[in-house]
């Protein structure tokens, strides 16, 4: 939990902010603040620890000197020691107010910045974070900000008659789960992965997809049924769910691995977006899953943030 030390406003960008008795937040950010507007960096937060780290005199450098709207004290949680270890998608709430973290740090403007000129350095690019307002209200010094860590939910669906009937063990589903867990660990994302094993039944697959999408899962990965055999149907069931398709991703994977193995060109795998859910259909072999996920992982973080409406590069 964080405690608010100061709330601050500036009328012009690139200048220090002045402490106020309270600030009002609405859909544009902090009202009357120069940074309010329809973008992702509506509200800036900085811990007072940054001032302590620089041994600054609070008389000469009062809170708001680094252009933060909200100066805090404390740590978000036991797992997150300070603000800069938050992640986009994390949230803070205080009463009815709800803020969503959108960016960690920023580019330093260096000697041209009024803040840099005054302090000789600016900790905001290293220690500060930015958020957007999901629900507005009034904040003042002494108010508490409660932290909610973003937890990703992923559904892994194996489609295979023989695995479903127990003819052989499903190895592709567990392999996908391992790769996803490793990816999320590397990015410091808490994740819950659920696995479902289905026969080659279009109606049953369609029903599972409907439920998972409705529940707002972040990602769905299917494995199996992407070939041209009589029972292969996964991409054709999945594709009608797309609001937007991502054709280039699977085309690139097919061409990349098809150069060495022409059979890879027979895969009908697709990728796309259904609501807020990213969906990827992968072949059923463990080797193909490693190959596909390796390429998907290169842009997966960017895809997730784009889905969240974040301009994070």
Description:
By secondary structure, the chain is α+β, with helices and mostly antiparallel strands. The chain folds into 2 domains: 2-148, PK beta-barrel domain-like (M1 Pyruvate Kinase, Domain 3), CATH 2.40.33; 152-307, 3-Layer(aba) Sandwich (Molybdenum Cofactor Biosythetic Enzyme, Chain A). It is built from 9 helices and 17 strands. Strand 1 and strand 2 form a beta hairpin. The radius of gyration is 24 Å and the shape is elongated. The two termini are 29 Å apart.
Radius of gyration of CA atoms, rounded to a whole number? 24 Å
Level-2 CATH architecture of the largest domain: 3-Layer(aba) Sandwich
Structural class estimated from helices and strands: alpha+beta
Q: Could you give the count of β-strands?
A: 17
Kindly give the count of domains.
2
Please identify the top-level CATH class of the largest domain.
Alpha Beta
Q: What overall form do the CA principal axes indicate? A: elongated
H/E series, N to C?
A: EEEEEHEEEHHEEEEHHEHEHEHEEH
How far do the termini sit from each other? 29 Å
The name of the CATH topology of the largest domain is Molybdenum Cofactor Biosythetic Enzyme, Chain A
- Spatially, the strands of the biggest sheet line up as 1-6-5-9-8-7-11
Report the β-strand fraction as a percent range: 25-35%
The CATH H-level homologous superfamily of the largest domain: MoaB/Mog-like domain
Low-confidence stretches: none
Q: How many helical stretches? A: 9
What percent of the residues sit in helical stretches (DSSP H or I)? 25-40%
Whole-number average pLDDT? 92
């Amino acid at each position: 939990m964080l405690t608010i030390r100061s709330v601050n406003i500036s009328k012009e960008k690139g200048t220090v902010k002045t402490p106020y008795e309270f600030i009002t937040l609405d859909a544009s950010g902090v009202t009357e603040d120069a940074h309010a507007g329809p973008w992702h960096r509506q509200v800036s937060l900085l811990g007072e620890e940054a001032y302590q780290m620089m041994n600054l005199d609070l008389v000469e450098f009062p809170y708001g000197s680094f252009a933060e709207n909200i100066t805090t004290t404390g740590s978000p949680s036991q797992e997150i020691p300070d603000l800069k270890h938050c992640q986009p998608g994390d949230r803070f709430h205080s009463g009815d107010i709800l803020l969503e973290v959108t960016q960690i740090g920023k580019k330093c403007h260096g000697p041209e910045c009024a803040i840099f000129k005054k302090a000789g350095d600016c900790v905001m690019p290293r220690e500060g974070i930015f958020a957007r307002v999901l629900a507005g209200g009034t904040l003042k010094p002494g108010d508490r900000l409660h932290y909610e860590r973003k937890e990703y939910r992923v559904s892994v669906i194996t489609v295979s008659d023989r695995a479903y009937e127990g003819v052989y063990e499903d190895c592709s589903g567990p392999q996908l789960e391992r790769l996803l867990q490793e990816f999320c660990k590397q990015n410091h994302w808490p994740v819950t992965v659920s696995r479902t094993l289905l026969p080659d039944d279009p109606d049953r697959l369609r029903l599972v997809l409907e439920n998972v999408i409705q529940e707002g899962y972040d990602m769905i990965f299917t494995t199996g049924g992407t070939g041209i055999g009589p029972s292969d149907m996964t991409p054709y069931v999945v594709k009608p769910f797309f609001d937007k398709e991502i054709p280039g991703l699977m085309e690139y994977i097919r061409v990349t691995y098809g150069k060495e193995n022409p059979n890879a060109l027979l895969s009908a795998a697709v990728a796309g977006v259904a609501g807020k859910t990213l969906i990827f259909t992968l072949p059923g072999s463990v080797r193909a899953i490693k190959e596909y996920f390796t390429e998907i992982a290169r842009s997966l973080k960017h895809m997730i943030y784009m889905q969240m409406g974040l301009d994070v590069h």
